[in-house]
């Protein structure tokens, strides 16, 4: 844990230095596409550290000066599966973005969707030595949170204080400077598979880039696709990517739960490919142009030319009805939404005051998906688009770029995390006893 703490602190310092120089890139490594945006900071609202706890990601202070996207290669379920292929794709997209921005980029902030995330809720409290809460008191109460034993091959990706309580007053965003006797906090901690993170970091380093931050795609997609009221009152963001569907729940402007389903838009394409006996590229085209999940009376008569280049005249001139295509797509989409509902139920989503659900990501663009999601998830569902940011090309304003835009906001206005405070890393109470036991085992 202490190693992870130091690594995250080092990334924060690197990000700070990059922003002071004025340029940083964000990299969204997905299963179907890899996107890169180059940001220039104009100095009006530069990253200066921790000013306001839990501040809403604003969009002042930076401008997108370079953007590029390429087809992802060597990535499955949001995780690197073929290092050389992924490295080539990352190099391609970085070079294209640098060319558009007309400058070289050394530091990137990356996000990814896989790695089997797990959420934990932590709590800690201390008695204050003096009546006024200082930053040291905040560090101390965070250090008192009882960290669970989350396993050997796991790493902490996000660790955010989501609530502070001073005596009997709860729901405080920033307790510093306030008067009281006892300070308590609730934290949300997200752990991911350490091997997946190590592979991604290694891939980015092989591209001669320094990594200045890591984030979960579901988290940053929620930052950009949820409006402020939704983040405040309680909402879920479902980021439907190509190989994985990320899920994040926000409350009081903080992420309080995250999970992922290892199914996405590529699985729908694979079903079409098998069902119609066509190549994956053809299946993707048919899904994009003619896909849907709700059949009407017209769809039986609406014929689609499948096409092909096998050389068999009959086979290459086949047609299928749109109703048949919907019959192939709908079961897989329903399966994804059922899995998402199971995750939401496990998180206790029905107990939140507001239960808005926002669909985003490339897979959310299937016509009729919002209506089907309303039936299966049983809540208010809307389609989300990323927030507008300065300089963003028109081609990058769709739901598929929610994570990329959210990563820009995350870069410019990071929420407070554990690593922002000078916590004595060796004083984590839950780890100390286990560390002592391990020392005895190793040395006796």
From TrEMBL:
Pfam family, one: FtsA
GO cellular component: cell division site; cytoplasmic side of plasma membrane
Keyword Iron-sulfur appears in the UniProt entry: no
Keywords noted in UniProt: Cell cycle, Cell division, Cell membrane, Membrane
Domain SHS2: from-to ranges: 24-225
UniProt record, GO biological process: FtsZ-dependent cytokinesis
Record has Cell membrane as a keyword: yes
Membrane topology classification: Peripheral membrane protein
InterPro entries recorded: ATPase_NBD, Cell_div_FtsA, FtsA/MreB, SHS2_FtsA
Cell compartment(s), UniProt: Cell membrane
Oligomeric form and interacting partners: Self-interacts. Interacts with FtsZ.
Role noted for this protein: Cell division protein that is involved in the assembly of the Z ring. May serve as a membrane anchor for the Z ring.
Family, as annotated: Belongs to the FtsA/MreB family.
Protein name: Cell division protein FtsA
Organism: Profundibacter amoris
